[in-house]
DNA sequence: AATAGCCAGTT
DNA sequence: AACTGGC
């Protein structure tokens, strides 16, 4: 997933509240480094975004799950004054603004940003003059700072999908490739490209003989026409940069090699959305199953998960837990 | 009390 | 090997 904020829902009646809550959420993550406040603001924004009525008061908002006393008061302040003192203070805090800027570079998180600020680095230009203070990932993030903030039109993801699929199939037609993320959910634009790849011979136990250590490397080699940089490269996961043509921006590309028996759980998981996954996982629990990116396992009376259920398609996962099948386009929540 | 595991880099 | 930072 990318660093970019989720695009705001176009029929969100509470979009103005969501906007300030998301801004507070970013501040808590990047500047205060309080992950729990970050999650709390995000949850509040998300419940307001999916609320079908315009909220008229803090009191009304408080009835929603995830909105308590503090956020309720902020909604009242915003309704009464059109702004938030806390947010104004943040906007006037030069250091907070610098940290927020630096964390927009891929590879720079809250800790590194504070560290850089301590060393007197206050702008993207300062970063460009101090590349020696950055690791490989951060240098790539800086190099493509502007491009990585651009959304990718669906048509471009589709073209990249065609190129990637063609080159990998050319290596071996038995490969299966699925571009997941928001693209698979039918969105008109995406933040990055998230490809899952499997092969009939790619079995779980094979990790030992390391036969697929080379497999991912071969795939990356086959894609050298569009891959321009490697951020990281392990046995199962590639993170890097690709470009469709000289006329296109550079795009973030992740490729995962998944064993066959985990493929559909992985495709389901990486298609999201986050909220959909959470809902589906909790439904699975009600049906005494535990679901993650690797497997679906029944939970016995002892409470201990059993052996993974054998899965041959995404639909089967829904069937097993008696959850109505939802097409990827219906999972945008 | 609050999603989780992979990868890179450091100690 | 354990830990940190980022995704």
UniProtKB/TrEMBL annotation:
Compartments it resides in: Cytoplasm; Nucleus
Entry superkingdom: Eukaryota
Gene3D superfamilies attached to this UniProt entry: 5' to 3' exonuclease, C-terminal subdomain, Beta Polymerase, domain 2, DNA polymerase beta, N-terminal domain-like, DNA polymerase, thumb domain
Catalytic residue positions: 74
Protein EC: 2.7.7.7
Catalytic activity: DNA(n) + a 2'-deoxyribonucleoside 5'-triphosphate = DNA(n+1) + diphosphate; a 5'-end 2'-deoxyribose-2'-deoxyribonucleotide-DNA = (2E,4S)-4-hydroxypenten-2-al-5-phosphate + a 5'-end 5'-phospho-2'-deoxyribonucleoside-DNA + H(+); 2'-deoxyribonucleotide-(2'-deoxyribose 5'-phosphate)-2'-deoxyribonucleotide-DNA = a 3'-end 2'-deoxyribonucleotide-(2,3-dehydro-2,3-deoxyribose 5'-phosphate)-DNA + a 5'-end 5'-phospho-2'-deoxyribonucleoside-DNA + H(+)
Keyword match Transmembrane: no
Cofactor(s) named in the record: Mg(2+)
One matching Pfam family: DNA_pol_lambd_f
Xref: InterPro entries: DNA-dir_DNA_pol_X, DNA_pol_B_palm_palm, DNA_pol_lambd_fingers_domain, DNA_pol_lamdba_lyase_dom_sf, DNA_Pol_thumb_sf, DNA_pol_X, DNA_pol_X_beta-like, HHH_MUS81
Record domain DNA-directed DNA polymerase X: where: 12-332
Keywords noted in UniProt: Cytoplasm, DNA damage, DNA repair, DNA replication, DNA synthesis, DNA-binding, DNA-directed DNA polymerase, Lyase, Magnesium, Metal-binding, Methylation, Nucleotidyltransferase, Nucleus, Sodium, Transferase, Ubl conjugation
Helix-hairpin-helix DNA-binding motif class domain boundaries: 59-78, 100-119
Function text: DNA polymerase that functions in several pathways of DNA repair. Involved in base excision repair (BER) responsible for repair of lesions that give rise to abasic (AP) sites in DNA. Also contributes to DNA double-strand break repair by non-homologous end joining and homologous recombination. Has both template-dependent and template-independent (terminal transferase) DNA polymerase activities. Has also a 5'-deoxyribose-5-phosphate lyase (dRP lyase) activity.
Protein family according to the UniProt entry: Belongs to the DNA polymerase type-X family.
Entry protein name: DNA polymerase
Organism (species): Vanessa tameamea
Organism lineage string: Eukaryota, Metazoa, Ecdysozoa, Arthropoda, Hexapoda
């Amino acid at each position: 997933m990318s660093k970019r904020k989720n695009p705001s829902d176009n029929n969100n009646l509470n979009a103005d509240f969501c906007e300030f809550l998301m801004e507070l959420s970013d501040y808590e993550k990047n500047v205060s480094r309080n992950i729990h406040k970050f999650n709390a603001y995000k949850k509040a924004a998300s419940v307001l975004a999916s609320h079908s009525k315009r909220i008229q008061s803090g009191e009304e908002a408080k009835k929603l799950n995830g909105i308590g006393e503090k956020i309720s008061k902020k909604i009242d302040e915003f309704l009464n004054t059109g702004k938030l003192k806390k947010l104004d203070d943040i906007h006037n805090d030069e250091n907070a603004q610098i940290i927020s800027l630096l964390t927009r570079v891929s590879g720079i998180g809250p800790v590194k940003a504070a560290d850089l600020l301590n060393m007197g680095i206050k702008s993207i230009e300062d970063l460009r003059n101090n590349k020696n203070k950055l690791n490989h990932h951060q240098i790539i993030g800086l190099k493509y700072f502007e491009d990585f903030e651009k959304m990718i039109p669906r048509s471009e993801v589709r073209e990249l999908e065609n190129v990637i699929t063609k080159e990998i199939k050319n290596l071996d037609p038995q490969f299966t490739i699925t571009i997941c993320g928001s693209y698979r959910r039918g969105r008109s634009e995406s933040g990055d490209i998230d490809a899952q790849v499997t092969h009939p011979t790619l079995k779980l136990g094979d990790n030992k003989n390391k036969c697929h250590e080379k497999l991912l490397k071969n795939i990356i080699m086959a894609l050298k026409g569009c891959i321009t940089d490697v951020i990281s490269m392990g046995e199962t996961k590639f993170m890097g940069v690709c470009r469709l043509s000289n006329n296109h921006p550079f795009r973030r590309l992740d490729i995962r090699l998944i064993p066959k028996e985990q493929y559909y759980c992985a495709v389901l998981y990486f298609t999201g959305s986050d909220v959909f996954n959470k809902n589906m996982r909790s439904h699975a629990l009600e049906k005494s199953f535990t679901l993650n990116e690797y497997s679906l396992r029944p939970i016995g009376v002892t409470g201990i998960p059993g052996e993974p259920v054998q899965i041959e398609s995404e639909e089967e996962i829904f069937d097993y837990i008696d959850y109505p099948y939802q097409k990827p386009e219906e999972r945008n929540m």
